[in-house]
Automatic annotation (TrEMBL):
Positions of the Bacterial transcriptional activator domain: 261-402
Top-level lineage group: Bacteria
Organism: Candidatus Desulfolinea nitratireducens
Pfam families attached to this UniProt entry: BTAD
Listed InterPro entries: AfsR-DnrI-RedD_regulator, BTAD, TPR-like_helical_dom_sf, WH-like_DNA-bd_sf
Protein name: Bacterial transcriptional activator domain-containing protein
Amino acid sequence: SVVYHRFRHLCLLSDRLLESDSSYEQGLFHLERGRLAVTEKDIPQALKNLQAAKRHFKQDGRTLEYSWSQLWLSSAAYQSGDINEARSELDEVLTLSKEKSIVHTIESQARQVRPWLVGMQKDPIIGKILSAFMDEVAVNEAQLATTRRNLRRIVSAVPMATPRLTIQALGRGQVKINGKTITPSDWKTQAVRDLFFYFLTTSQAKTKEQIGLVFWPDIEPAKLKMRFKNDLYRLRRALGPEAILFENDRYSFNPALDYDYDVETFLTHLALATHSSNIQEQIKHYQAAVDLVRGSYLSDIHMDWVWSEREHLSQLHISALLKLAKLYLENKAPDMAKTTCQKVLKQDTCHEEAHRLLMKTFSILGDRSAIARQYQVCKQALKEGLDIPPAEETEDLYLQLIA
């Protein structure tokens, strides 16, 4: 928990203080102790430590840390009932936040102290300015989450912070928060987890009634209201209240979250491969895309709303594998081409283009017997699966390769 990590950090700081007379170290200790006191609602202790932190940071000339202390001190003063002190501290911070060089570090602290500043946004003197600042913090937070998400998809050489929410749908559905898997007991029921993936998949916000037709088509309106309310409560309890938005009587997934979704990453790599003119870049992105696929889309959900997206993504996956196999052949990597074609045939044994590519691959490898075997495998698969002979193109290629 946040409290535990702050307590642990506090213990480390107190150990260092025994060996240091630094005003900066003293300031950090009191700031962390004050923040912990705010979260524990020990306001007298918070005021004592945060005022001490201010003194130490001022003595050491630490403008940023000084403003952090003021931000937390304003929340503590407000909770203590000292409105004038809260206004005074906050006014200085908001003035300082106009400096572009340090605004982001102040916003970072503001995100942490936000729950304890909500009440001050109604203050007749400073509330309007504070609300505008917190709105800006929220906008920048959303942009930051989007930027992180896009970078994770295309940058592999630079270490990136783990997203808060990691979502996997290319295979069995799975969700992690800060690296920890949400278990069936966390979801409470399978329907709650499925509801989350429905929100994630649908392109438009939905009303309660529209969602009810998908999940509980035969339920009475009164029971639908209670069922939906309970499942939505459980969903938000598992992932956080901000995971699902409610606007204009419609519900939707919150795209401003810091999340990573394998389907979006898959599509991003396909787009990057398609728009690149460099063969190595194309190979890199197609390979990255197909490596994400662990199975069919949401393979453990058996509802009508899944089928269309499952088929769409399956076709994209097969298309990516075929393009990748061709690129490997062009790049003189027949073994990689062979492995890639075999993945296509594992999904669709009747895919003639994959059979033809495999025959070409065996030709490059100089394995005439493998060409003949692959042709026979193709012929048998088409007979058993579709009751048709190989296409003329397949016949002609086979005769050409064994000539």
